Write a sequence for this structure.
């Protein structure tokens, strides 16, 4: 990837309900993004995130978040100085495999592998139980979530 | 020294293990009375989800149980289904399956050794802090992980949740040129793997010897990875088809994961790197055997803290095996063999990075799945982990709660438990002021 490349990383597990929002948004983007945009689906393992965004000019992470109380609500968080405002480290450490986005950012900073710019598009979820399918509120938000990502990568909305 | 009569340690979310779990240790009058490892495990959901699906689907569905060891789930699944249908795809496909599985071992073990386990021995709270001081070491671990992922990308189509695996073989066989390039990448990784063994062998290891019966696969002539029969250190030997008669699962109130014991045995048993190594060290390929000897492992290893050395040796083993398979690669005439549906029950076992992974499928005549059973290694090891923790904690009761809790978490990480395989979940703080 060149330094001007863009990578969109949908984080989540489609078998844990709303946790599948990130991958669902990436699927919605297929065929709609410019050629220089790479689409990746990940379970959020920090080493995988680090490898996916190393060398990127812009990395966009699309993820479901919990605990905020407004299912379907979208957030756009811009990393400042290598930190992502609004994501608390303890919450990140409870993620997929004991590590999370916060760890990926910390590791990337220590190794000089942060993308030039990092944006997190988050959708608030309400059901992270076992099973496929998004909750109605999150499912209804995927189009808007994909459009928000497209606005960042310069594709048709 | 604390002299409180009743002391409870709780680690509500254990850091740097694969998933979600909690630990409770209860101490009464300086005696460890109870150790409970609470884990939340999803394979039971997948058992229900598989019912009614086609017999061709489990490799794709079970790959989603875990992002760290999808090949293990795929492998035990297709072995079980092929057993029902009476099909054995042949040695060329078997070699490619072993190669794919080597990729998973390398990637999984590199992640655990460098990112999750080594910080404990070097006095860091985690990989991020370790990377600040040892950038070159962390990069070496990431390069090893990339080598493992490269195998899965060439054989499996992608590193996470491989899509090229099917009942009967693969959707397509890798091109010779791709295999040659992969071989060169793995050759380059081999020296890093040997350096890794030398590096971790020099760590300080607490004294802890466990006496569990050890359970692993056996494949005489080879280090067992993608197939084999089952053996124990207590002299048991049985096939996958006998697994549910030999391994008895039972519920405990504090965990959604079932505990397991060997039928007719009073004690606990352990599966995973220590068991695999102790029961199969004579079958390590030459470089791995030499590295193990130089690391002082001997023929057996019963100290869970030294499991990091065994994992490092197994990275060498997997690279050696992978390089050999690639060197003799001759593309099969067909990437898969036909597997006609048949009614019956089949069983499959393989050595996931964390130990024996068993699956059973009951099919009807058109291949519809009537029932499925998945027994992952971590739930088998849960009772052994709890017993080891009790043994570990007792002589360390003089530590304050924070220090003791931290040491317990380290002890749990010895087993690389794959506790939830899993949800991704970020907690969001919003300041609405």
């Amino acid at each position: 990837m060149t330094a001007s490349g863009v990578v969109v990383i949908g984080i989540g597990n489609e078998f844990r309900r709303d946790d599948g929002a990130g991958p669902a948004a990436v699927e919605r983007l297929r065929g709609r993004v410019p050629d220089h945009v790479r689409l990746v689906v990940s379970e959020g393992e920090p080493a995988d995130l680090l490898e996916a965004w190393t060398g990127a000019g812009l990395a966009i992470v699309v993820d479901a978040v919990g605990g905020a109380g407004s299912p379907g609500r979208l957030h756009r968080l811009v990393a400042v100085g290598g930190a992502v405002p609004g994501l608390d480290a303890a919450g990140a450490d409870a993620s997929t495999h004991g590590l999370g986005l916060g760890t990926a950012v910390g590791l990337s900073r220590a190794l000089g592998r942060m993308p030039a710019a990092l944006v997190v598009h988050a959708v608030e979820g309400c059901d992270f139980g076992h099973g496929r399918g998004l909750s109605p509120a999150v499912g209804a938000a995927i189009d808007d979530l994909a459009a928000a990502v497209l606005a960042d990568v310069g594709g048709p909305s | 020294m604390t002299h409180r009569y009743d002391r409870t340690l709780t680690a509500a979310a254990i850091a740097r293990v694969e998933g979600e779990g909690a630990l409770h240790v209860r101490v009464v009058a300086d005696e460890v009375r109870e150790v409970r490892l609470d884990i939340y495990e999803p394979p039971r959901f997948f058992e229900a989800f598989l019912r009614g699906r086609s017999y061709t689907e489990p490799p794709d569905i079970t790959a989603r149980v875990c992002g760290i060891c999808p090949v293990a789930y795929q492998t035990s699944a297709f072995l079980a289904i092929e057993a029902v249908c009476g099909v054995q795809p042949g040695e060329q496909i078997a070699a490619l399956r072993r190669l794919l599985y080597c990729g998973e071992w390398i990637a999984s073990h590199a992640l655990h050794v460098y990112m999750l386990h080594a910080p404990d021995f070097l006095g860091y709270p985690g990989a991020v802090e370790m990377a600040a001081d040892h950038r070159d070491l962390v990069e070496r671990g990431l390069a090893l992980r990339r080598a493992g992922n490269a195998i899965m990308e060439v054989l499996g189509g992608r590193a996470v949740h491989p899509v090229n695996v099917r009942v009967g073989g693969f959707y397509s066989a890798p091109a010779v040129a791709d295999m040659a390039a992969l071989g060169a990448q793995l050759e380059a990784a081999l020296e890093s793997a040997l350096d890794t063994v030398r590096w971790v062998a020099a760590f300080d290891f607490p004294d802890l010897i466990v006496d569990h019966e050890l359970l692993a696969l056996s494949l005489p002539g080879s280090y067992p990875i993608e197939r084999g029969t089952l053996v124990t250190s207590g002299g048991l030997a049985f096939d996958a088809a006998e697994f549910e008669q030999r391994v008895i699962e039972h519920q405990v109130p504090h965990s959604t994961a079932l505990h397991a014991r060997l039928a007719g045995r009073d004690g606990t048993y352990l599966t995973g790197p220590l068991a695999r190594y102790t029961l199969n060290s004579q079958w390590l390929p030459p470089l791995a055997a030499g590295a193990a000897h130089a690391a002082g492992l001997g023929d057996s290893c019963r100290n869970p803290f030294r499991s990091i050395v065994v994992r490092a040796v197994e990275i060498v083993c997997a690279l050696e095996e992978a390089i050999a398979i690639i060197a003799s690669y001759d593309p099969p005439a067909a990437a898969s063999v036909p597997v006609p549906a048949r009614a019956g029950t089949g069983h499959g076992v393989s050595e996931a990075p964390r130990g024996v992974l068993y699956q059973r499928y009951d099919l009807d005549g058109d291949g519809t799945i009537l029932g499925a059973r998945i027994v992952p290694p971590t739930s088998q090891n849960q009772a052994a982990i709890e017993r080891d923790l009790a043994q570990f904690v007792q002589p360390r009761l003089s530590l304050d709660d924070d220090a003791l809790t931290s040491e317990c978490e380290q002890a749990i990480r010895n087993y690389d438990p794959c506790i939830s395989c899993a949800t991704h979940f970020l907690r969001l703080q919003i300041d609405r002021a």
